[in-house]
Every structure is written in structure tokens, then in C-alpha cells.
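Subject: DUF4349 domain-containing protein

B.,
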Amino acid sequence: MRNLFLPLCIVLLLNSCEKSEMKLDIPSTVVSPEKVASAEYVVEETPPPQEVSKEPLSDENKPAQVSVSPKKIDTIAKKVIKNGTMKIQVGDIKKAQNQVAGILKKNNAYIQNEQFQNTDMDDNLDLVIRVPHKNFDALINSFSDGVGSVLSKNISSDDVTEEYTDVSIKLANKKIYLEKYRDMLRNASTTKDMIEIQETIRELEDEIDVAEGRLRFIDDRVNYSTLNLGLYKEKVRSSATSKIGFGSRFADSVTEGWNSFVTFLLGIISFWPFLLLIPLIILMWRKLKACKKKPQQ
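Prediction pasted inline below.
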């Protein structure tokens, strides 16, 4: 029995050791789920980068682009449009015109439009002058001092900085949208989407052209001021040559009387169909009168 007991004890000890080793191996199997859990946690963190990558394609990113545009407000210089009108009385139109040409050349200005009118009372030369913004005041002073007697002068300034800034910001945003729609057009999968995107692109391009044209117009008006200059010369009238004297008025009265008579005569002639009825009426009246006399005889 003792010989059998010892082997049994040894077998039991070995079995207990194997069970203990199995229990010790269990934690190793528990650790692996934690690793899996940690791996799953890492996977859960990956979607945010994907969502960030999608944001530039969404409409929410468009206002973010606009945030860059306020920097342009500080870079835009003040935009002021200056305009003026002057009327100057001169002794000689030709001499004054030569003086004006010299002043324009000195101030790098030019004549945009010229109109001359010669009447019985006076001569008028109207000029539309464009002059660089920085030389506008010097040009006005030159005309006031050396050309003639200033009859009237009106100078105005219009600050268009706010309008220019607003148009510039909208133009920048439209260009951003245009590039995004062009990217969408390259990635369009259906014909319907392509047609709709192309129509939107066409509208944006038209709006961009209008905005750029408006900015060019404002820049032109700001860089070159406009002056409407009128040169006026009153003609000298004498009793011998004046056309408003008695002789001229008498001749005009005779002419007007003759014209009135011709008009009256032509008006009567225009009633010629009614004049043909007068002989007919007279003939009928005589016949009626003759018929009344016959019973008396």
C-alpha cells in the first residue's frame, strides 16, 4: 500500500501544479482583450480626421474663407472721387483756349470732350477735362488765377471707400466659390449635375465680370478727377450792328406779318372743298326764289 500511495501523491502534486499553471496563464488571455479594446479605441479616434478631411468640401468651410477677406479692408486705401464745374468769363476765346492748353499740359491733364457754341449774344466753349487726382487742386487754382473772371465754381468730393471695400470682398468670395464649383465639375458623375454646375459657374463668372468692371470704373474716377470747364465771352453790341435794335425788330415784324398772312391764306385754301359748295347753294337759292314768284304771275 505504501508503494502505491507514493505514486498517487506524486500524480496529485503534478496535477495541482498543472492547474496552478493554467490559472496563471489566464491573465495572459485577459490582457489580450484589453489590447483589443485599446485597438478599438484607436479605431474610434480615426473618424475625426476623416470628418476634418470632408469639411473643406462642405458649405461650412465657405465662411471660413471669408474670414481672410477682412484683412483686405486694411490694405485698401481711401477712395475719394473729386468732381468740379467752373464757368469763366474771358476777353478772347482763342487766347483763353491757348492758356487752358498750357495749364493742362503742366498738370498732365487732357480734354475728354469739347463743344463750342456761337450765338448772337456770346461765345461758349465747354470742356470736359480729366486730371490726375493729385493735380486737381492745382488745376483749379491755375484756372482761377490766370484765365479770366470766375463766374461760378462748384467742387465736390465723394468718398467711395465703403463701396469699393464691399465690392472687393464680394468679388473675392465669388472667386472662391467659382474654384470650388470648378472642382465639383471635375468630380461630377452625372450629366444633370454637370449642367447645373456649369450654369452656376456661368452666373458666377458674369457676376465677377460686373464686379471687376465696377472696381475699374471706381479706380478710374478716383485716379482721374473730372472738371467741366466753361469759357464764356459776351459779344459787344453797338447801335449800328446790334440785331436787337429798331431796324432789326421792324424787319422781324414785317417778316412775321407776311408769314402770318401766308399761313392764313393757306388755311383758307385748305377749305377748297367747302368753297365748291357756295355756287351750288346760290343756284339752289335762286331756283327756290323763282319757284315762289311763278304762282304770283
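The first strand starts at residue 80 and ends at 89.

T.
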